[in-house]
Amino acid sequence: MVVVLELDGDDAFDPYARPKGLDHSSVTIRPKEAQTQPSQRPNPNINNFSKSLGCYPIVTQLTQYIDLNTLHALSRTCRQFRANLLQYRTRLVQQTLHCGNESTPGPFDDHYSRRSVLVSGRVSPCARDMVSDCRRCGRIVCRNCAHKPPSASLLRQRHRRLCSKCLATPLPQLSRHWQDPCTCDSSVYLCAPCGTGLNVADTNYLRIWTWRTRYSTYLGGLGTGVGEGNEGVKCWRGEKCVAAQEVEVEIDCSEEGRTSDRESSESSDSERQHWPEGEGKEERAGYWQQEIEGIGGVVKKKIRKRVKMGKTVKEWEDERDGKDEVLGREARGEGRSWCGWCGRVVWGEKDQKAFGGAPELQKRL
Questions:
Q1: Does residue 341 contact residue 136 with C-beta atoms inside 8 Å?
Q2: Is the CB of residue 163 less than 8 Å from the CB of residue 241?
Q3: Are 88 and 60 in contact (CB under 8 A)?
Q4: How far is residue 150's CA from residue 148's CA, in Å, rounded to a whole number?
Q5: Which of 10-24, 109-123, 291-305 has the highest mean pLDDT?
Q6: What's the CA gap between 329 and 348, in Å, rounded?
Q7: What's the whole-model pTM score?
Q8: pLDDT surpasses 50 at 268
Q9: Average pLDDT score over residue span 222-231
Q10: Choosing a second label site near 39 at 20 to 30 A (CA), which of 82, 180, 232, 359?
């Protein structure tokens, strides 16, 4: 029931004056149905996914693959998601993604082990807020165990040249990570073993091209034949190259190196077939193993082994003449290349045009 009181507009308002008598003839009674009620709009956040977040068996399996930052971002999506996750907060925080080195003792633990710290690369307790997999080997590491990323000035040195067959091969057939290419230009996330020695590997690879340019046929025929046939720079994919071939290589090693090499070759079936029959049982000189007397009368052993090597890559004329920098086309993104840091393919201009516009891949670029 609503009572409407009409006041005279001419009289001045006096807060201490007694109110006049009510005129019940001017009272308007509105029915209950006519009273305005706040409209209840439907909740657009109630869907199948939000309902699954309220189911404990489902949400606990989902939490095992995300870290605390991702879980916090998921809860901030909307109020419905937050309400569903808040009821299992204590359990979900404990079940988030763990670092692979969390069980390794460190300098902050009671059982200090210097060797374990050097192997794991951990200098502080493992974090739980930022945990992800290594871009190269897939090992789960936290931000404290991850290797410090190289400086931005070294990004151009990470490119490795591919052969003509690997350049012409479609991306789905070239790599299983073709939908998730190299993202080192924006973020580098590697574990300590994979991140160690990146600068040395980049320098050694560039020195190969520098040596070829300095001793090429353009210097008065001093290096005639260098880079021709099987002596050129091989495809960086190695035995995974599309046009890989088996070639014989000679390796000079000692007795200890020969034993470790034989044990490593016997560990895989693919390399075991390269050794002749009976080679692993007895050591004898022959075509596959020869003894050489070195300086000072030191006897060394030279072994021959059949391994798979990639096809020789192309060398451009402007790079030989010094008009363009080595691997300049790969650094500018004109051609497809391979990243020496994360071990993933780096898309070229043709790949960007073919797959860059796809909605499911645009977020990854």
A1: yes
A2: yes
A3: yes
A4: 7
A5: 291-305
A6: 9
A7: 0.67
A8: no
A9: 53
A10: 82
299-309 vs 345-346, strand pairing mode: unpaired
Residue type, 181: P
Which of the 8 DSSP states describes residue 256? H
Which tokens hold the place of 189?
A: 């996330």
What pLDDT, in 10s, does the model give residues 142-188? Answer: 998 899 888 888 999 999 999 999 999 998 888 888 888 999 989 89
Position 248 scores a pLDDT of: 84
> Buried (b) or exposed (e) across 279-301, using 16+ Cβ within 10 A?
beeeeeeeebbeeeeeeeeeebb
The helix, strand and coil proportions of the chain, stated in percent and rounded to the nearest 5, come to 35, 10, 55
| pLDDT, average across residues 198-203 | 92
What values do phi and psi take at 166, rounded to 5? Answer: -70, -30
How many helices and strands (H and E) does the chain possess? 16, 8
Scanning the chain, the segments in alpha helix (DSSP H) are 48-53, 56-63, 68-75, 79-86, 89-94, 114-120, 164-168, 171-174, 192-195, 198-214, 255-266, 269-272, 317-321, 328-331, 349-355, 359-362
Kindly report, residue by residue over 289-312, the tens digit of the pLDDT.
Answer: 888 777 788 888 888 888 888 888
Cα gap 138→115, rounded to integer Å:
23
Beta bridge partners of 5: none
